[in-house]
Amino acid sequence: MVGEEYRGTKQWSRNKQAVFTVLWISFLCAAVGTMVFFALFDPADIGSAYDEDLQLDRDAGYAAGFFFFWVFSVACSAITAFLVRTAPKRDAAHRDE
Amino acid sequence: MSDPKSASMYESAKKIYPREMGGRFADLSKLATVSLLGLFYLVPWLMWDGHQAILFDLPARKFYLIGLTLWPQDFPYLALLLVIAALSLFFFTALAGRLWCGFACPQTVWTEAFIWMEQLTEGKRSQRMKLDKAPWSWNKIRRKGSKQFLWITFSLWTGLTFVGFFTPIRELGLELMTLSAGGWAWFWALFYGFATYGNAGYMREQVCKYMCPYARFQSAMFDKDTLIISYDEKRGDPRGRRKRSVDPKEAGLGDCIDCTLCVQVCPTGIDIRDGLQYECIACAACIDACDSVMDKMNYPRGLVRFTTEHAMQNEQTHVIRPRMMVYGALLTLLIVSLVTSMALRTPIILDVIRDRNSLYRELPDDMIENIYTIKLINQSNDAREFKLTVEGVEGIHLDGIGDAILVDGGGVLSVPVRARAQRDHAFGVMKINFIAEALDDSGDRRVEDSRFLGPTP
To answer: Is the Cβ of A10 closer than 8 Å to some Cβ of chain B?
Structure first.
């Protein structure tokens, strides 16, 4: 006799799985992307290269970079997840090919 | 909103109430939690040589690792370190299964801390389940309120500590206290605090089941010699309830009394008796639970235990096997190369940028001049004197720079220099080398190439 609150009842719905997985994996990718990008480029230099008067402070640069990467990765993962989940099912006749 | 269930976008997961269970592995897990969290909260406050011992100073773009100062140019070391960390994870996974998940992963460690606070305020499993079902009362408000208070305080402290790894924590703490901290410091502290609160307070092992990539692909590192938590089916089945006085053999029963304690304690809500499942994070709570029951029944411990697939089939378990040798060899190679390259690291960075606006200049006394901007970084912690020279064209020399250039410890010197050579030797595009040499006994020098332009012959 296994308790009611266990065994299959506690699973997240497919939608919830998709939303949180997309957010989380994009977050990790954005973190790595931000790290590599800002190891190579100084946000203070990027601002002044665009406009000599633009003094982008580093904290804001890092944050902007991180959120750029995150939004970008979320878009990429979300579209991929959407396409994978909504792909047409192969019909039974061709399933074994 | 007549039917809240259909209005909700997601079907909510039934809440899991893991039952608390003491035992050998619970003690080990507590030890791991206390030491890892202790390290996390303590380390930013440690000082070394006048600066924070471990500080990834992003605003200044310098990483302080105890006595070592790393610069953005040292990024390859960090990359190598991350590769080593990943490979170590593979190594230990192949050897001992998901030890990382059960005892060292931040998700597990913080969840453990949050569950401890939950038990402190809301009581044991049965009390928590009753409290959740009960209508709102003063007692419920008090218990839930104090849990939230502990969780939120702890999360905010976690956020502050996290930001303290990236900006000096002593100043940051003072600034947050006096509400004079910058917007981004607040933002990241709250962001990380909120993530901790959500992950450890609510999502818990759902993160491992649905969101963790490692949990899905760790099976690729597993083989029949990997340490796993397993129920001994041969010994346990057929399962059945019985009185302590009954001899299981005579009753035709195995050692499992089907008390379901192993299921009740499982934080991911699986039944370990169904075999190895990817949800299992190897926290070993079921081992503790089963051992306590076996003790009560006077049966030998280990009906659920850490073992290997080979051992379960009464075969030899091989610790040293090709997979371990490959992982081990790669790991050793990478660690040796990291240590060697760090030991041989020259703490000088030299950047040479040719003036983009002019090709060359002809001087009256038949000389050709090119202009460069030199960036000289002294990565050591003490001030040092350097000599800058250039070679590659006969008679080439530098003008406008002294013989001994003083650069402060951790300082960056940016200076324009003119390189001059006789017109007879300077034609077209010529490769030259700038050399920065430390004026002490260390022999530290750094060479950086560039181009010298002259008239087309």
So the answer is: yes
Contacts for A6 with CB less than 8 Å, ≥ 6 apart:
B16, B263, B264, B266, B269, B271
Taking the alpha carbons at both ends of chain A, their separation in whole angstroms is: 44
Confidence of residue B142 (pLDDT cuts 50, 70, 90): very high
Task: Please tell me whether residues B36 and B155 are part of one structural domain.
Answer: yes
Q: Which residues of B touch A77 (CB under 8 A)?
A: none
Burial class (CB in 10 A: 0-12, 13-18, 19+), B139: exposed
How many C-beta atoms surround the C-beta of residue B169 within 10 A?
21
Domain co-membership, B241 together with B356:
no
- The domain ranges of chain A are 14-85
Which element (helix H / strand E) includes B79?
helix B75-96
- Cα separation, A28 vs B155, in Å, equals 20
Average pLDDT over residues B143-162: 95
C-alpha span between B318 and B195 (Å, rounded)? 41
- Residues B29 and B169 both lie in one domain: yes
Query: What is the domain range of residue B377?
Result: 348-453
Is the predicted ipTM greater than 0.85, yes or no? no
Contacts of B185 in chain A (CB under 8 A): 59
Residues B168 and B269 in one domain: no
Alpha carbon distance B176, B40 (integer Å): 19
